[in-house]
């Protein structure tokens, strides 16, 4: 099924819910070949989903009513930029939207996991306005960031993550892809991320100091100065990383993993995805005592692809990642008071889990 070029076709990008019209939806479905020539879209209903989850994007579920019997989708999902100025600044500064567009166009067809089928994907050349139209996969078993991932599910997700990393391990195409998928250590991250931390950490201490476990307070003063060093230590061995590999971006279709959200894809050590996933998607009481076991499972799966990684170096990188990825929650803390209940709960829990992983694995020692 072809992916519709919304700009080239004249359909245009979605900038607000009011732009999602019957004509626009019909144009997308006809462009993909999913809508029969004798059937039209008579009306649509929209529903915003993923609030507090899709932090950098608005996600709308669209339910068309058709003029007759059809095999066209009963629902579809439309994704476009966040309306929050602060979050939009983050997305623009880190060029996140273009990554997802290119991923769906060029990489998604070959990944070793299921993802939502992409119907349309376009981005403006002059700025970062974008729109993605996707299959609605809401019927799959969704994981939940707040509830956490079981060790059994975590093992399966680490297996398929290793399979994905193995596809791109040391791939000669990676250096030519850095304009879209930058390496983890790059000048933009070096310049922007410390400022995000410096703005976010005081907000952490103001709004939810109880989310900072005893013994981890020191990270607040050292993280910015260690940002570039941490990223420099996560460049090799190089592969393509998902970048936001966490429970709210993971589902299961029966026994098979389903992965979504590719806005933070970049090149670097696969341990980045491993450390982020384990430290922030598994409840601390479930994860504690199993970090090395889970890392070893990932390494064992890589070995089935003929890829062997030094276990001690992998563990050192894991500790660095655990410290680095505390930024994911901290960067959003200046907007804490303006978030809905789930968004606030998500930030508090992700911060606490990340810092518990720092504490449980003596990770600060690795960046001292």
Overview of this structure, please?
By secondary structure, the protein is α+β, with helices and mostly antiparallel strands. The chain has two domains: 17-135, Phosphorylase Kinase, domain 1; 141-367, Aminoglycoside 3'-phosphotransferase, Chain: A, domain 2 (Alpha-Beta Complex), CATH 3.90.1200.10. It contains 13 helices and ten strands. It has helices spanning 22-32, 85-93, 96-107, 151-168, 187-207, 219-232, 271-281, 284-287, 291-304, 311-324, 327-330, 341-360, 364-367, and strands at residues 41-49, 57-66, 76-81, 118-123, 130-135, 141-142, 238-241, 250-253, 256-259, 266-269. A five-stranded antiparallel β-sheet has the order 1-2-3-5-4. A hairpin with a 6-residue loop joins β4 and β5. The model has no long low-confidence stretch (mean pLDDT 94).
* Total tally of structural domains: 2
Instruction: State the strand order across the main sheet.
Output: 1-2-3-5-4
CATH topology of the largest domain: Aminoglycoside 3'-phosphotransferase, Chain: A, domain 2
Number of strands: 10
- Which series of helices and strands comes N to C? HEEEHHEEEHHHEEEEHHHHHHH
Write down the CATH class of the largest domain: Alpha Beta
Q: Count helical runs.
A: 13
Estimate what percentage of residues fall within beta strands: 5-15%
Low-confidence stretches: none
* Integer-rounded radius of gyration: 21 Å
Class computed from helices, strands and strand pairing? alpha+beta
